[in-house]
Specification:
The structure holds 2 protein chains of 2 kinds.
Chain A lengths: L5 E2 L7 E4 L1 H22 L2 H25 L2 E7 L3 E3 L3 E10 L5 E12 L4 E11 L3 E11 L3 E13 L5 E16 L5 H7 L5 H9 L9 E4 L11 H7 L3 E4 L7 E6 L5 H20 L3 E8 L4 E7 L2 H14 L8 H7 L6 E7 L4 E7 L1
Parallel strand pairs in A: 4-10, 13-14, 13-16
Antiparallel strand pairs in A: 1-3, 2-10, 3-5, 5-8, 6-7, 6-9, 9-10, 11-12, 14-15, 16-17
Helix pairs in contact in A: 1-2
Chain B lengths: L3 E2 L1 H5 L3 E3 L2 E3 L10 H26 L6 H17 L4 H21 L1 H23 L14 H24 L5 H17 L6 H20 L11 E3 L3 E4 L3 H25 L2 H7 L6 H14 L31 E7 L7 E12 L4 E4 L8 H11 L6 E9 L8 E2 L13 E6 L17 H7 L7 H8 L10 H15 L15 H9 L4 H14 L4 E9 L1 H5 L2 E2 L9 E3 L9 E6 L3 E9 L3 E5 L7 H6 L2 H9 L10 H45 L2 H19 L8 H8 L6 H13 L6 H19 L1
Antiparallel strand pairs in B: 2-3, 4-5, 6-9, 6-15, 7-8, 7-10, 7-12, 9-11, 9-14, 12-16, 13-15, 16-17
Helix pairs in contact in B: 2-3, 2-6, 2-7, 2-8, 3-6, 5-6, 5-11, 7-8, 8-9, 14-17, 22-24, 22-25
The chains are: A alpha+beta, B alpha+beta.
């Protein structure tokens, strides 16, 4: 997910700054060491050294200045979405159309895991090669779920002798969603989670408003009688039916109860994904619900396909990891959810698992 | 959403962030590590060949340069490649070492001969530069010098490649390279011998490449297959062959152009005409000359000695190191202000090149002075004196310790004591030996001069301005004056080079020394001019030491002195005689007085300075009394030295101030640079810290632990403290940037508070 890139030719606020320490060091070395040695020896060899080292700093600085106009820096990731346990490459792509190089381009990265709400600043030093697009990958192993956001805050490009550096501000950003690793669907099947539970869910719906109604529309011949919203039809004087997202008879409500403990959190997400995927395979509608820290309430997604499942995880990640133990019953009542049972995926005090939760 | 910064985790091994670990064992196959290592090999080659080839060509030694370059190039590449991984490094190092040993043994004769041939060229060049005739050289076993030098250069190249590679492959320490190059090139460059231009260019290019590589920051060698190097601050993408090639090219092309232009507009010949003479080198000429003529051995004494003396052995002392331990304890009653001499060694024949005074033939030692002076004393001469001296040999050499003039004395060994009776001569007594003449045989013995020394002696004597009508003492005065004016006294003259004669080297080349040098040369000069003379070693105790002695009031002076005395009120004294009193002097024979001692050694403050503490010397240096005595030559010489030292001290102090000022300036500039570079939040925090630092000088804020507590202490009545604290907290703890107006507000508010504190 790429949002921007940094083409230095379009940036007007590049600051070229002297590297004070190096310049002072050079002057001391040149003055005390170089000139003193020359005055002592009066040698042709030292004379050549002095002349060369007097001129090349200026050449080096001029080369940097002319190079800056032709550089584009951007972040890249080998994939937008990855799975825990996989390899992932993130890094810097530097395109340089000039004939000059720099061996020191210090890219200041701010890397965040949105779900775990952690961030680190990291400098990634890469070379800039003349007349080429240089890809400098940082190969990583994906270990935890979340959304990894890497942003390039600034680049410091030094001349080859390091006397000056151009500081280039940037806001280029990439984002990678990391999905948990699914457990074997056959294992889920053995647990028989859909047997009885979806029926139970159906039973619980009789005579009640069902909260997964996504839309109310006029009756079309062929619609099921039980879908007619009698109360509303009476009020509006027209037959209205409840419309469901999917013409699926069964539905599973999953409550993702993320744990304050990080290691269980990963297992809960993995189990949620596996159950969700299993349900989709079994043609069962899944409704994933969780506590959203940002909303300070319940958030939910109806999952009709793997794409929906991934989007649901995006939303879970963006909500941030809940670190407080929640009272599910009061939470659902408070948020006007009128349901009797959900399947809670969480940590039960001894292990991570799922169990029906009577509301 | 507030994110938790986890700095500790940034430093952990491969951990990047929750969810991502850097693959520590991944190598990007697109980047060819071998090429990177070969590139390092090219630097090794350029630097090694540049400095070694430059050194050999500078001295004009002929060798096969193509073979040399090919061998060094191949070895440089090979030694770089063995660093491909840990295993190849370990095996390669051992294999390379065995190869060096094998070739060293197999071609040792060629290598030695080649090295000797080059050294002979260096010595020849040194002879021309330092004006050292007949400096000698090494004998080569292989006649084909070109072949031998080629072998030697290749072998030296193979050794240097390892050293250079160690500096480059792992750490890219270009400072070490420059230092190594300076060491290797030192001798030819010092002697104004310039390396071949091509080697200059190679060396410069190699060093420029290493500088670029080091500054580029991707120089570290990774033993595993990781393409990254991670340290506390950053992850560096290590291998980049193409990047380095382009970076080198973009700098080396202008460097080569500069060198080409210099070659055209300022070739070596033109430079040599313009460079002039380096006065700074005069300071180190002695050291370099000692090194070239005697090697490192020249900096060490070749034998143990007391105060530079070793019973007639000469030239083996590089510098006289005094231990100031008591050698002798003497007890006597001083009778005048002249030094008292205790003779331990008398030299007879001088052996040139062996640099040795043989012990004088006992049959040639005229002892009649004692008899005559004793007779005069016994006859009641009013100016005659009879003295007794108790000598306790605590740590001196076994020797006679004869006094002027005492009877034939036995050897006084270490740990023994003896009492000597002697009859000092003085001017008032007059000629006491007028009817004694030296025999022809004796005269010939005491006039012998080796032929090897004659040219040097003639050369020196011609400068003395001696006329035929001068007597012995006038000639002695001339020699003394010559020494005073031309040859400085020093306790660090350097040892005499092997295969050189001590006296010739002293008179013609080195022209500095201590008493042994002055006395030895003077003896031969006297002899050459027909005055019987001999070299004497022993102890000379001057009046200053006598005054520092312990007065022995309980001893009866009459037991130690009877007869004439210029110092009738001085009691018997006991003096600890150290190696600082060890001395060599000349005795010449006059018909009227027999053997008399002649003091020709110029004065020096060295001994006195060495005996005082550093603090004493410093105080003395700063004392205005140093420059008020203009009377004697000695004090003039001392004053000149003191003035030099004072000037150097002032320069050193000024340099120290400049360095301190530069350091402060650097701190201010780097602070300012950091401040300018920072974002607004950081700028405010920097300003606040500076404000706190200054405020802490006026008020104690050590207990105030946060902004609020600090403000309560510093501005208890402040109306707008809350706003200030809020902005500071935002700047310090929030990821949001404060606005420019907030920054200005805080800046002005802090100024107001600062003023308030001053009031």
């Amino acid at each position: 997910m790429e949002k921007n890139n940094t083409n230095l030719s379009y940036i007007s606020d590049i600051k070229v700054m002297p590297n004070i320490g190096r310049i002072i060091g050079f002057l001391i070395a040149y003055g005390i060491f170089g000139v003193a040695v020359f005055l002592y020896f009066r040698s042709y060899t030292t004379f050549l050294f002095l002349v060369v080292f007097l001129i090349i700093p200026f050449i080096s600085i001029m080369m940097l200045r002319s190079m800056l106009k032709h550089i584009t820096v951007k972040l890249f990731a080998s994939e937008d979405r990855s799975v825990v346990g996989n390899d992932l490459g993130i890094g810097i792509i530097i395109s340089n159309e000039s004939i000059f190089s720099s061996l020191r381009c210090r890219c200041h990265l701010l890397i965040k895991n949105v779900y775990y709400e952690e961030e680190v600043s990291q400098i990634f030093t890469v070379p800039i090669v003349a007349r080429s697009e240089n890809k400098n990958p940082l190969y990583c192993k994906v270990t935890n779920c979340g959304i990894i956001e890497a942003s390039l805050t600034k680049c410091e490009i030094s001349d080859v002798l390091g006397f000056v550096k151009a500081v280039v501000p940037s806001d280029h950003m990439i984002s990678i969603t990391i999905m948990p690793k699914q457990t074997n669907l056959d294992d889920i099947q053995k647990l028989g989670i859909l047997t009885g539970f979806t029926d139970n869910e159906d039973d619980s719906q009789k005579g009640n408003e069902y909260s997964d109604t996504s839309n109310i529309r006029e009756y079309i011949p062929g619609d099921r009688i039980k879908d007619i919203h009698w109360k509303l039809s009476a009020k509006r004087d027209v037959l209205l039916v409840r419309e469901h997202i999917k013409s699926c008879e069964n539905q599973l409500v999953l409550w993702v109860d993320s744990s304050p403990r990080k290691k269980y959190c990963e297992q809960i997400l993995a189990l949620t994904l596996s159950v969700g995927a299993f349900c989709l395979k079994e043609n069962t509608l899944v409704r994933i619900m969780w506590y959203d820290k940002k909303l300070e309430g319940v958030n939910e997604r109806i999952v009709n396909s793997m794409r929906d499942l991934e989007k649901a995880f995006d939303a879970i990640y963006m909500s941030g990891r809940s670190t407080a133990v929640s009272d599910l019953r009061s939470l659902l009542i408070m948020n006007d959810y009128n349901m009797k049972t959900v399947l809670r995926v969480g940590f039960d005090g001894s292990e991570v698992g799922f169990a029906p939760y009577e509301i | 959403m507030r994110f938790k910064r986890n700095k500790e985790k940034e430093l952990e091994g491969n951990h990047l962030i929750e969810g991502l670990e850097i693959s520590g064992n991944f190598y990007d196959k697109n980047e060819n590590r071998i090429l990177t290592l070969l590139l390092k090999g090219i630097i090794v080659y350029l630097v090694t060949a540049g400095m070694l080839g430059g050194t050999i060509t500078a001295t004009g030694t002929e060798f096969n340069q193509i073979v040399f370059n090919v061998v060094v190039f191949v070895l440089s590449m090979a030694i770089s490649l063995i660093y491909y991984n840990k295993k190849s490094e370990n095996i390669g190092d051992i294999a390379y070492l065995f190869m060096i040993i094998f070739f060293g043994i197999a071609f040792g004769t060629y290598i030695n001969s080649g090295f000797y041939a080059w050294m002979n060229d260096v010595i020849g060049a040194a002879g021309a530069y330092f004006d050292l005739p007949d400096i000698g050289g090494y004998v080569q076993a292989v006649r084909n010098t070109r072949l031998a030098v080629t072998f030697a250069s290749c072998y030296l190249g193979a050794v240097c490649v390892i050293l250079v590679n160690m500096s480059i492959v792992k750490r890219m320490m270009y400072g070490d390279l420059i230092l190594n190059a300076m060491i290797v090139l030192f001798l030819p460059v010092y002697m104004e011998l310039e390396p071949n231009y091509v080697y200059d260019v190679m060396l410069i290019c190699g060093i420029v490449m290493s500088v670029i590589w080091k500054i580029g920051g991707r120089y570290e060698k990774t033993d595993n297959n990781s393409v990254y190097v991670r340290n506390k601050k950053e992850i560096t993408y290590t291998y980049c062959f193409k990047g380095h090639v382009f970076a080198f090219a973009q700098i080396l092309i202008p460097v080569l152009m500069i060198l080409l232009v210099l070659y055209i507009i300022m070739p070596k010949d033109t430079f040599e005409l313009l460079r002039g003479k380096s006065e700074n080198k005069e300071i180190t000429d002695d050291i370099v000359e000692t090194f070239i003529t005697s090697g490192f051995a020249g900096f060490f004494n070749r034998y143990e000695n007391i105060g530079g003396m070793n019973s007639g052995r000469l030239g083996g002392v590089n510098s006289v190191r005094l231990d100031y331990e008591t050698d002798l304890v003497i007890t006597y009653a001083p009778y005048n202000l002249d030094p008292v001499y205790l003779r331990t060694f008398i030299g007879g024949d001088y052996h040139p090149y062996q640099n040795l005074w043989s012990v004088a033939n006992p049959l040639m030692l005229n002892r009649n002075e004692y008899e005559r002076l004793k007779a005069l004393y016994d006859s009641g001469n009013p100016y005659s004196t009879k003295c007794v001296m108790d000598i306790d040999n605590e740590a001196g050499d076994n020797g006679e310790y004869a006094l002027y003039y005492s009877d034939k004395d036995s050897i006084l060994n270490v740990g023994r004591s003896a009492s000597r009776t002697f009859y000092p001569a003085n001017e008032q007594i007059g000629a006491y030996l007028s009817d004694e003449k030296m025999t022809k045989e004796e005269r010939e013995y005491w006039l012998s001069v080796p032929n090897d020394n004659v040219p040097s002696l003639i050369n020196t004597i011609q400068k003395l301005g001696i006329t035929d009508d001068m007597d012995e003492m006038e000639i002695a005065d001339r020699i003394r004056k010559y020494y005073y004016d031309n040859i400085p006294y020093t306790l660090r003259p350097g040892s005499t080079p092997i295969r050189r004669d001590f006296i010739n080297y002293f008179l013609d080349s080195n022209k500095k020394g201590y008493c042994v040098h002055f006395a030895s040369a003077a003896v031969l000069m006297f002899r050459y001019m027909g005055i019987p003379a001999r070299y004497v070693e022993g102890y000379a105790i001057d009046y200053n030491e006598i005054t520092n002695g312990k007065a022995m009031e309980e001893l009866n002076k009459d037991d130690y002195l009877t007869g004439f005395s210029e110092l009738p009120n001085v009691p018997v004294v006991t003096i600890d005689v150290t190696d600082a009193s060890a001395h060599a002097w000349v005795e010449i024979y006059t018909d009227d007085y027999g053997w008399v001692q002649v003091e020709l050694t110029p004065p020096s403050s060295d001994i006195e300075n060495d005996s005082s503490t550093l603090w004493d010397r410093f105080l003395k240096l700063l004392s205005p009394q140093n420059i008020d005595d203009e009377g004697s030559d000695e004090s003039k010489s001392n004053n000149i030295d003191t003035a030099k030292i004072r000037r150097n001290l002032i320069i050193a102090i000024i340099l120290l101030f400049i360095a301190a000022f530069a350091w402060q300036l650097y701190r201010i500039v780097s602070w300012y640079a950091g401040y300018k570079r920072a974002d607004t939040n950081t700028k405010l925090i920097i300003l606040y810290h500076q404000f706190l630092k200054r405020a802490a000088r006026k008020k104690d804020i050590s207990d105030a632990r946060n902004y609020r507590e600090q403000m309560i202490v510093l501005s208890p009545d402040g109306q707008d403290n809350e706003k200030l604290i809020m902005i500071l907290e935002k700047a310090g703890f929030s990821s949001k940037q404060i606005t420019a107006s907030e920054f200005e507000y805080c800046k002005n508010r802090l100024k107001e508070i600062k003023r308030g504190i001053k009031k």
